[in-house]
Design goal:
Blueprint: E1 2-6, E2 12-17, E3 23-30, H1 44-51, H2 61-69, E4 74-79, E5 84-91, H3 95-108, H4 113-131, H5 134-146, H6 160-165, H7 168-178, E6 184-190, H8 194-205, E7 226-230, E8 236-243, H9 252-263, H10 269-276, E9 283-290, E10 295-303, H11 308-325, H12 329-346, H13 350-364, H14 370-378, H15 382-392, E11 399-404
Helix pairs in contact: 1-7, 3-8, 9-12, 9-15, 10-11, 11-15, 12-14
Length: about 425
């Protein structure tokens, strides 16, 4: 059963009781991420996420870690484009302790100058690691250029330049402006009693101030470019993408089904055609990235430089087939079944349930039940698939980034000509 309450200052409490499990997952969610940063602030949200584990007025960093290690629990956090989450997973009997420690790091972190400098080096290493991982880095490269100049194009980690300039005053003022009650909620799933947790959170989080900075934002403008980036790598990495849809778009269920059938698993068209039949890649997949008001779809592949033309040709041909004909009836049914099975399997853990609660709150402000999700997927028709593919796979709107040892060779927009 899913329940929601709002305490006096506006902080929301969402729970889903799962009596059949022994664990509890709880997260403090802040509707703030890299999207809400100015260019000079880029990386501040992520830096704050790191620092909240480095000591409070009552606990040292070691004592925070020991509290969870002592009960076999997990304490962690992550930052996205539109939200940040601080979460814990523990046995149900330890939920109160987890809630108290999370509240302590969230409200009472000291931002010690020495810790800021130490953690700055950790974040810089994280940036370097991402840039040294080409199959990850190409996604940042694509977004940065496809939505150039927009906050959604900025990397979550920030850059070496911006992170080196972040100081304590910037961190504390940024947090004070954005970690406000209207943007904060607590989500918990598993062994949890809603009324008890709400009362506990009212005491712990009742002092969170409201009336923070009002964010004004607009959707990004797409830039259908082709970028050839030389880098000394064994493989050539390819990312093709174009305008997608928002989280709440009317065709979102069709997008899930199309993505699954096109490149969402071992039976998908791209995997079968490019890897299984030709052996030209180890990894190829499609994906969708959706946000409050916008999104993009993409296809990633990593291949030997001499096979780039063939991989592109086959990939574009598969996009063309879907745009023209959609999916075969058996293929459509299999994609729906795969999605529904993955959805149900993913809901067996308390952390997955906690995440689902939170994402529904951020993007829909209500619970989207499993039955509603399943019905939405089941209702997708091949006409929906063709409608979506026809809007996505337009050659004049597509963009592409190639990363690797291209030997000075430049691939241009004519690669998309078969879609015309």
């Amino acid at each position: 059963m899913i329940q929601k309450s709002v305490i006096g200052n506006g902080v929301r409490i969402l729970t889903e009781a799962m009596p059949q499990v022994v664990s509890s997952s709880i997260g403090i969610w802040v509707e703030n991420g890299s999207r809400y940063e100015e260019p000079a602030e880029n990386g501040t949200s992520h830096f704050i996420e790191h620092l909240l584990f480095k000591g409070t007025k009552k606990r040292t960093a070691a004592q925070i870690a020991e509290a969870f290690d002592a009960v076999g629990g997990v304490l962690n956090a992550f930052t996205g484009k539109e939200y940040t989450c601080y979460y814990a997973k523990v046995l149900g009997k330890d939920l109160e302790m987890a809630t108290e420690v999370l509240a302590d790091i969230f409200l009472e972190s000291v931002f010690d100058p020495a810790e800021i400098e130490r953690e700055r080096q950790v974040v810089l290493q994280e940036i370097s690691q991402a840039e040294d991982t080409p199959d990850d880095f190409i996604h940042d490269l694509f977004t940065e250029n496809f939505w150039k100049g927009h906050p959604l194009a900025l990397p979550i980690f920030g850059s070496t330049e911006t992170v080196n300039k972040i100081d304590r005053e910037q961190l504390t003022s940024f947090m004070a402006a954005r970690y406000r009650s209207s943007r904060v909620f607590i989500a918990a799933a598993g062994q949890v009693e809603h009324e008890r947790l709400t009362a506990k959170c009212a005491g712990l989080f009742g002092g969170v101030a409201g009336d923070g900075k009002v964010e004004k934002f607009s959707p990004p403008v797409d830039r259908p470019l082709v970028l050839n980036r030389e880098k000394n790598l064994e493989q050539a990495h390819i990312c093709i993408g174009g305008p997608g849809i928002s989280q709440s778009h009317r065709l979102r269920y069709a997008a899930y089904v199309l993505n699954t059938a096109l490149g969402g698993g071992m039976s998908s068209r791209l995997f079968q055609e490019v890897r299984e039949k030709r052996g030209r890649v180890y990894s190829i997949y499609s994906f969708i990235s959706s946000f409050i008001d916008s999104g993009y779809f993409g296809v990633y592949a990593g291949t030997n430089p001499e096979w780039v033309d063939e991989v592109l040709e086959v990939t574009i041909a598969e996009l063309r087939k879907v745009e023209r004909d959609g999916l075969e009836p058996a293929e459509l049914a299999r994609a729906k079944s795969q999605l529904q099975g993955n959805m149900l399997l993913g809901m067996e853990s308390t952390d997955s349930r906690m995440n689902r609660l939170a994402r529904n709150e951020i993007y829909f402000r209500r619970d989207v039940s499993m039955d509603e999700l399943s019905a939405g997927i089941e209702a997708v028709t091949n006409d929906n698939i063709v409608e979506l593919a026809s809007s996505w796979f337009q050659p004049d709107k597509l963009a592409m980034v190639l990363l690797g040892d291209l030997k000075g060779r430049k691939i241009g927009r004519d690669v998309f000509a078969p879609l015309a």
